[in-house]
Amino acid sequence: MKVIKRNGLEEPFEWEKVRNVLDRAFKSVGETLTEDTYIDIIDELYFGDENGILRDTISVEELQDQLEQALFECGYFEVAKSFILYRDKHKQLRKQAQDNINFINKFVGSYNTADATIDDNSNVGTKGIGVLNAEIHKEANKNTNMELWKQWLNKRYPDFNTKQMDEDFNTILYAHDSSSQVMMPYCMAVSMYPFLLNGLQDLGGKSAVPKNIDSFCGIYVNLVFALASEVKGAVATPEFLMYMDYFCRKEWGDDYYENENKNISLYKVKTIGKQIDQYFQQVTYSINQVAGSRGCQSPFTNFSFFDENFFYGMFGDFMFPDGSKPKWESTNWLQRRYLHWLNQERLKCILTFPVCSYACLVNENGDFLDTDTYDFICKEYSEGNSFFTYLSDSVDSLSSCCRLQNSVQNNTFSTTNGQMGVMTGSKNVITLNISRIIQDWSREYKELTGDYTDLHILMSPGFESYMIEILDRVYKYHEAYNDMLHWAKDRGLFLAYNAGFIDLDKQYLTIGINGLNQGAEFLGIKCQNNNDYKDYCNRVLSIIKEQNKLHKTKKTNYNCEQVPRLGGHYKPSLIDSKLLKNKDNEAQASRLLYCAA
Fold first, then answer.
1. What is the C-alpha to C-alpha distance for residues 438 and 457, in angstroms, rounded to an integer?
2. Bridge partners (DSSP) listed for residue 445
3. Strand, coil or helix: what is 507?
4. In a 3-state reduction of DSSP, which class is residue 177?
5. What would the pLDDT profile of 355-374 be if each residue is shown by its tens digit?
6. Segment 174-229, tens digit of pLDDT
7. What pLDDT, on the 0 to 100 scale, is given for residue 217?
8. HSE-up of 119 (CA within 13 Å, CB side)?
9. Dihedral angle at the C-alpha atoms of 142, 148, 150, 151, nearest 10 degrees?
10. In this structure, what are the phi and psi dihedrals at residue 92, rounded to the nearest 5 degrees?
11. Which residue of 41, 163, 362, 522 shows the fewest CB atoms closer than 10 Å?
12. How far is Cα 240 from Cα 227, in angstroms, rounded to an integer?
């Protein structure tokens, strides 16, 4: 008789292998397989066909099934239990291996990285072995992250049913980058001051303190890669150009920007301006390179630009380690030169990073206070430049990590914007699927009241209670995640925080908004400049704003973010369509998917 192995191959049946299996099973529970016991067990095995004739083959699975049954029949229940657990463990290991093999085959056969990756994003540019080895673990990372999250949730709220968390994150909520590395903050906008004091030493690096413009630009690149290894998403260095100006002035004098055509080489013609452009090139192309530590992703990097009023509001009292202060005139010249250079360079090569944002102060009428900056921005836009313009009537309203606004004084709402804050960002992001929430409430409201007036659905007191009930769970999820991050920080896992580049308590727990307009369309409201649409937006956003204020503590500060459609937008809608299709309601699924798209 032969045994059919799991790979389909056949090998001769050997009693010695059966004995070895049973021997290991008995040893696993601290017992010894005696000869009499062995004979009793194998007497229970049966290898005949329906006519009692010895079969030619038996599968390894059937053989193991018979051994399980034989152990039970002979009364060796603990051994049988151990054997079952052993089989199940190895079954799971084989399944995981096969899943990984299936992923590899899909990855190799995919057209591009968006088809190949589990959690596609803008800073994956290749489909090589580095990306493969990063992506293949994402499903396991997600499972680990969610299990850790649940454990911390139950530590804070022992009576909370974590099945509710599973339901929420498969319907009305989206946890951003849950498949990224385990137990990480979302994004950070750092202060570069520790970099001037200690270089990269506090981040585990060997680089010394930057002393001149050469070492500053070179070590800065290493800084970005080091910081990016500790977050899921963006690393913003809003002070970069101000610090670069500091080293330029140390190199060529405070008036260097007035002498851009001055030759600085004895051997060939190289002006100050051309040398600065080379530094621009060094930094920009370096941060667009892939990083092995990030699965061949480039570090998502943000730069900030300021008008004069915003600059002085942010850095008017700032001093460098040598006691000198930032200089607006030279920094302004440098930041304008860089933004224009970057636009021209992008005509030669696709450069994803840095994400650039211009922060400008406006008056109560929305007019620019710095009209010279206004003229420059308009000129750059007219030449096809691409960057965010962030307008605020107060310097205490900051933006970070490419799309969210952080208000120092108040929890306010902002649409997509660039990054301007120093020592801020998001610790965690949970996005509300507003379209789904409104549709769920609409069905519930109509069943309760029989009122089918769309605006009444939203303006009813019940809607506020319905939203608050959801938000209360979101705050619990955020608090648990925040506890987990503090636990990791206190145990020295976050070098950037311990080195003073960023303060965990100054970062935000972000509530994202997705499908806002689609929810309005479901209610028959046109997304235009009309009172119904204004009332609708105010109704939804004011509830979130007020609850953010009520839940603010020393360690939990909340803000609200409009999440771009890419990624976080379509994933909840796909979940919804699957759920509805499972209920055999194709028409409703199509309607919901349409509203969310």
1. 9
2. none
3. coil
4. coil
5. 999 999 999 899 999 999 99
6. 999 888 778 999 999 999 999 999 999 999 887 789 999 999 999 999 999 999 99
7. 97
8. 22
9. 160
10. -65, -40
11. 163
12. 14
Listed in sequence order, the DSSP H helices in 419-515 are 434-449, 454-459, 461-490, 495-498
| Distance from C-alpha of 527 to C-alpha of 516, rounded to nearest angstrom | 10
In what helix (H) or strand (E) does residue 535 lie, and over which residues does it extend?
Answer: helix 531-550
Q: How many CB atoms lie within 10 A of CB 428?
A: 27
Residue 527 Cα distances to 516, 519, 534, angstroms = 10, 10, 9
Helix, strand, coil share of the chain (percent; to 5): 50, 15, 35
Q: How many CA atoms lie within 13 A of 402 on its CB side?
A: 18
463: left (phi over 0), alpha (psi -120 to 50) or beta: alpha
Which helix (H) or strand (E) segment holds residue 397: the answer is strand 397-400
CA angle 454, 456, 461 (to 5 degrees): 135
Sheet strands side by side (includes 413-414): 173-175, 426-433, 508-514, 557-562, 413-414
Determine the Cα–Cα distance for residues 523 and 534; give it in Å rounded to an integer: 13
The pTM of this model reads 0.81
Beta strands in 32-132 (DSSP E): 57-59
User: Phi/psi at 428 (nearest 5 deg)?
Assistant: -155, 150
361 sits in which H/E element? strand 355-361
Residue 295 has pLDDT above 50, yes or no: yes
Best CA proximity match to 213, nearest among 255, 183, 247: 247
Q: Which residues pair with 188 in a beta bridge?
A: 235
Cβ-Cβ contacts under 8 Å for 244 (sequence gap 6 or more): 213, 216, 217, 279, 334
The rounded distance, in Å, linking the Cα atoms of 559 and 507 is 10
